[in-house]
Amino acid sequence: MTHPDPRPATRPDSVHGARPGTDAPPPARPGTGPDTPRGARGGATPGAGHNAGPGAGPGAGHSAGPGAGPGGRSDGPPGPEAGETSPAPVTLPVARECPFDPPAAYTALREETPVAPLALTVGPGGGTGWLVTRLADARAVLSDRRFSHRNELIGLPIPPPFPMAGYTPPPAAPGAFIKMDQPGHSRYRRLVTRRFTMRAIAGLTPVITRLTAEHLDAMARSEGPVDLVTAFAEPLPVQVMCEMLGVPDAVREPLARHFAVLSRMSYTVEELIAACTAVAELLTDLVTTRREKPGTDLLSELAGNGELSDEEVVNIAWALLGGGFDTTANMIALSTFALLTHPEQLATLRARPELADDAVEELLRYLTISHLGASRAALTDVELNGVRIPAGDTVVVALPAANRDPAHFPDPERLDITASAQGHVAFGHGEHQCIGQHLARSVLRVALPALFDRFPDLRLATDPAKVPLRSDMLHYGVHELPVAWGAGG
């Protein structure tokens, strides 16, 4: 899924020499963002996680020349008249009043200041970037090569997990294609694309169906109540991705555990170093094994094609697995929560199973788990919706706000599985659009109907207000979702 990690990506080995108590280099995950495979989040930096890459750098772009202020207008559309002041930079909205709705602050921004000055925390620039909240502008930024996805150009819109002085993001590591522009991006992406086409993913449907049934069988044996996150939502996507890549059973649990640390918005230097070191070592050992004993899986294909170094294969795997271990899991759990609290929509889905595809698209639009957005940096001065974006400035695309834009979706604040969600940007847009989007959709289309078919009386086993939300994580969702059925709970 899409999945924006507002933290720039770095090399998995970049933190190995960091010492606790010093300004450790950013984490070692190949980049992520709405463009990452199913939300894959490889290689971020401490604080980097804020992907999506929001922000080009504090103040980035204030190379615009005299007269360019937070409003970003210098030689373009006229700036404020004498005596007027430019809009003050806003902070990235994160506070929610409803578990399924984006922060309320987005509504006023989208209506009144759709391209708003945005306060950034660390990274390139001087402290201010831009926040885009309308769908048309979001799609324009994400499809325009004048806006770069290069790691070293993008600043952060939210604070890093621990104090960092003078942080300068490095270029993306070899293989971390998610944080690259052309031609590097397409060079790596083409090596894995054929495994993620609609036809290739259709061939995985029997595997997804089998794994789904196995987890639901295990749930049924427990007699409930259970935490749907740990019993179903998390292990299913992990298994699917691992089957695809060729990750053996013994490696899956430790990889998932360490990726879980890197999916947080807060951790210590020690936790960062330990997680990045462990992931790098596990993947390096796995790549070595696949070179010596290849199979038919994707890692064997990458390791044996003769074009890539071990480092490149490790970083590609890091990006792909990051998505498989996080975003689709969040969508399964959050979608279940949403449907259980919108019983009329669940009843419609049960009565009309042919709506499964439409339901998945609407849930993707309505929930938009990439809550930190997707970031780009302007390579040249660009006019966007009447606002001049100076070269060097970071632009953060607020995906949740764009997916609630009433100019495109007639009733955007309502979950309606019979409505068209065409044009949503839950997976990003343009050439960096999530490479794993078809896989994510396939898992959701199988998992959600199967869950409600197997447990027709599934219900929450706790007060909805007590469900712990993942507002503190790089991708939104729920930490736990207690559910029951039958007489259980």
Overview of the molecule:
- The protein has 489 residues and is of the alpha+beta class.
- The protein is built from 16 helices and ten strands.
- It has a five-stranded mixed beta sheet, with helices on one face. A three-stranded antiparallel beta sheet has the order 4-10-9. A two-stranded antiparallel ribbon has the order 6-7.
- Helix 5 packs parallel to helix 16, helix 9 crosses helix 11 and helix 14 packs across helix 16.
- It is globular, with a radius of gyration of 22 Å.
- The two termini are 32 Å apart.
Question: What layout of secondary structure does this protein have?
Answer:
Layout: H1 105-112, E1 115-119, E2 128-132, H2 135-143, E3 147-148, H3 184-193, H4 198-202, H5 205-222, E4 226-227, H6 228-233, H7 235-245, H8 249-262, H9 269-292, H10 298-303, H11 310-324, H12 327-340, H13 343-351, H14 356-367, E5 374-378, E6 382-384, E7 387-389, E8 394-397, H15 399-402, H16 437-454, E9 459-460, E10 482-484
Helix pairs in contact: 5-7, 5-16, 7-11, 8-9, 9-11, 12-16, 14-16
